[in-house]
Specification:
Blueprint lengths: L3 H15 L4 E6 L23 E3 L2 E5 L5 E5 L4 E4 L7 E7 L7 E6 L5 E5 L8 H4 L12 H8 L6 H6 L9 H11 L12 H20 L41 E5 L2 E5 L7
Antiparallel strand pairs: 1-6, 2-3, 3-4, 4-8, 5-7, 6-7, 9-10
The chain binds a DNA duplex (16 and 16 nucleotides) through loops.
Amino acid sequence: MPELPEVETVRRELEPWLTGRTIRTARREDAPKGPKYAHLEDADGQTIEAVTRRGKWLILPLSGGDELVIHLGMTGIVTPERPGSHHRVTVELEPTGDRDTVYFQDTRRFGRFLVAVQGRYDGLPSLQQLGPEPLSDDFTTAEFLRRLKRSRTPIKQHLMSQKAVAGVGNIYCDEALWATRIHPLARSNRIGRKRADALRQAIVDVLTASIARQGTTLRDYRTVGGDTGGYVDSLKAYGRTGQPCERCDDSVIERIVVGQRSTHFCPKCQRR
DNA sequence: CGCATTTCCTGGTAGC
DNA sequence: TGCTACCAGGAAATGC
């Protein structure tokens, strides 16, 4: 499911394609009116100035001061190929001969593709409350620790909330906790400076390594070029229920549910 | 405010 | 084969 590495992979592909391109029309196809596809028509005539990312959100500043905001949800795909089904948005660019139409396909309708008018993120509370960007200098141990202290919920849930750090979802959460031997049910506010620093580093390392492999494809995720993500072969915890822990002997990865989400960990080396 | 729970949605799959 | 039931989960809405 698209998390930071998958979204960053998409961003890197969109950047050379879309930067400087002018939108002729942006229109909803088989997608509901409402906040998930708000103000799309406002993009008409504006030029895409950059392709940026905040957490799992793609943000494309437009020349008129608006922003095109895209969230891939679970199954969202940005592609130059016309989707055969689940076609949600069409963006026609002023033609240059290089892939003049952008399509948004989203099987399960969890994605969003909208225009934030003049930087107003009303209807996007998550974007407003987003924690620091993990691959930036803002993601310091001191700041991370401060944010971890704000919640008594299990560390797994707090990382998933996007409030302590942006862009970490179910897969990389389980991977970073496995890497640091932190139990997913450990209370966020009980994590000390030393473990917070290790966790911060593990998050950076896991995300960076995954970006290098173009992310993780479990089922639906594809790059703009149609490739699958290779990090699936490097997973140590996520989806490995019943398989041996690669770090300790005589132990297998266990699956529990934390905050309504499946959670994978090694009961032997991840202590509470 | 924090936190828990529910909702959205569809394809894949288990079980009969 | 065909049917039903259930599962996956990011973010928002809802209810304390």
